[in-house]
Amino acid sequence: MRIAISSNKPDLEARVGSRLGTSKYLMIIDLRTMAVEAVPYPGGSGQGGGGIQAVVLAISKKVDTVLTGYCSPTAEKYLSANGIEILTGVSGTVAEVVQQYKTGDLQRRMGVVRKSESGGAKIDRRTLFLALKNSSNQFINLLPILVGVVLLIGLFNAFASKELLSYLFTGNRALDTLWGACFGSIFTGNPINSYIIGGGLLEYGVGLCAVTALIIAWVTVGLAQLPAEISALGSKFALIRNGISFALSIAIAFATVGILNFITG
């Protein structure tokens, strides 16, 4: 059993590092032989990526558990993916933490049950709390989208009259599909909103090909975000990508409707 403890000094009497990514050493302790190895890494140099360097170091040293004050979610994910247990909120000297870990006091205080004590199961209250917290955050992030969908339905029914749509979409499949791709390219928002608008257009008699082109262009072409895309990726790439996406939205719309008509007979 090998554990790694973050520390700013290569000494058992040093205090546990408050952050894995900014500590200067990993104290590697073999609990069977009590051999100690102080492994330096440039976590405390102020440069970025200290947490990932600590992860790589822990994996290379084949430790079973990492103990530290704080570990970023990204570093924790990679440690867990490699079968390494991570315990945070640890404080005190390295020697104290080693002793607490050996006796199981540290695990019990953090709500971790060893496999030998639980018949192969391990209950981590902190993990359960984080799972509940992540679920709550996902719902909170989704709530504005749900509210926006409800409002969008009302706005569409209020402003998109059947007469207006009949004027824009004349029943000419090619022209209507072009219009659908144009509207999809101009509008911006969550992709879910495109389904709301598409459903409303179908109810008002707009062709499926035009609606399909609108939905595809909505999620692949972004004229509203074009300045930001040009700034980040360059004008040539942004213009070519949007142009190809616009053309493909029309082609895919025709192909989709054609395949659907063939299947349904």
Outline the biggest β-sheet: 5 strands, mixed
The CATH fourth-level homologous superfamily of the largest domain:
Dinitrogenase iron-molybdenum cofactor biosynthesis domain
Structural class: alpha/beta
Mean pLDDT: 79
The CATH topology of the largest domain comes to: Nucleotidyltransferase, domain 5
**How much is the radius of gyration in Å?**
29 Å
Distance between the amino and carboxyl termini: 66 Å
Q: Count of DSSP E strands?
A: 5
From the structure provided, what is the oligomeric state, counting identical versus distinct chains?
single chain
Helix segment count?
12
Helix content: 55-70%
Corresponding CATH architecture of the largest domain: 2-Layer Sandwich
SSE order, one letter for each helix or strand: EEEHEHEHHHHHHHHHH
Spans where pLDDT lies below 50 across 5 or more residues? 113-123
Strand content: 5-15%
Shape type: elongated
Q: Please give the domain count.
A: 2
Strand order of the largest sheet: 3-2-1-4-5
* CATH class placement of the largest domain: Alpha Beta
